[in-house]
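The passage that follows is intended for readers who have already worked through the single-chain material. We present the inputs for a multi-component assembly, then the predicted structure in tokenized form, and finally a short commentary. You are encouraged to pause after the input and sketch how you expect the pieces to fit together before reading on.
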Amino acid sequence: MAHGLDPVDFGGEVASASDAPADRVLAAINRIIVILSSIALLLAGFVLTYSVVVRYFLKYSTDWQDEMSVFLIVGAVFMSAAAIQAQRGHIGIEAIVGLLPKRVNRVRVFLVDLASLAFCAYFAWKSVTLLHEAIVDDYHSTSTWAPPLWIPYSLMTAGMILLSVQLLLQVIAGLRHDNAGDEGAGA
Amino acid sequence: MSTLSIGLLYGGATLLAMFAGMPIAFALGAIATVFMIAFMPHGSVDTITQNVYEEMASITLLSIPLFILKGSAIGRSRAGQDLYGALHAWMHRIPGGLGIANVFACALFAAMAGSSPATCSAIGSAGIPEMRKRGYSGGFAAGIIASGGTLGILLPPSITMILYAVAAEQSLGRLFLAAIGPALLLVVLFAGYAMWRFRHEYNAARLQYEAGGANS
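Having made your guess, compare it with the prediction:
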């Protein structure tokens, strides 16, 4: 089972992203997002450290720190999901992957990508409707700071849309790989 | 369909999706959504995104990405090898001291990183070759690191305990406090066993040497 700390090796059996323009654009977006997400995680760490120092040592009350770090981390998690999927780094059980023949494994990866795409696209659509509601009805958080909720919802929506696009590209790459394999076998 | 059969179907479908290699997050989400659409009132799926956000926006749960970040940073640094080197220098005179040093290094690293796999890879990469070089059997050397790695989920701060605290709605601080005693007891037991096993292997090797010489 992968634990997210080491690069995952799939032995080149999985269809990799091709050099199509859409793949290159998404890869460039992902690179920028990964840098921004890393900065957001570090910022969250600084905000929480500041919050602890101010609250426990200087005895001031804090209001925005917890929620600010929640927004930063939730944003980093959702926005970087597509970049992680591009490397197939989302944690899954790979116990049976090594036992399957190459061809069956390719079909398995395709079906798994398709099911993941269906779920992520549905979730992205539901996130869009939630974001729309939050903007129209002006949702705010219930804390004393009361920031508008469209901020985290928009990060969640953008992240899920990017993830769905990434999965769609991987499904298309899987289809192309299968066709190329069939033509190669037929020739 | 009865509640029991829906539950069984749900459990079976979740296991099937996860063992098919679907990323765990998508597998849990997809199966839950499908079952909500099939067996729950129509409006229930309208709030799934809101529910996910509200569950995620808990400050306790969000400590996990930061712990993983910390564990990953420590794992990439030389902290594991340095820690192991220091403990080895202190304990190499004790019989079985190398094994004990590995157990202690695992415990200290686990307390810093909070993750069992990170502990095993950081201490094992330096510890196993060293133990093999000093004649420890492969099973014994790997066993010390594997059992030492399990301290990662017990010694605070442990990622597993954070998840348990959120799922079971228990106090995380009290859980961490409760784990210190058992974790220290395990460290002492692992170290004691490492010492006993070292003597056992040492005596067996010595008897073999006395019976047939160095080349037997």
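Commentary: Residues 1-17 of chain A have pLDDT under 50 and may be disordered. The interface with chain B takes residues 3-6, 41, 44-45, 48, 66, 69-70, 73-74, 76-77, 85, 90-97, 108-109, 111-112, 115-116, 118-120, 122-123, 126-127, 129-130, 152-153, 156 of chain A (CB under 8 Å). How closely did your sketch match?
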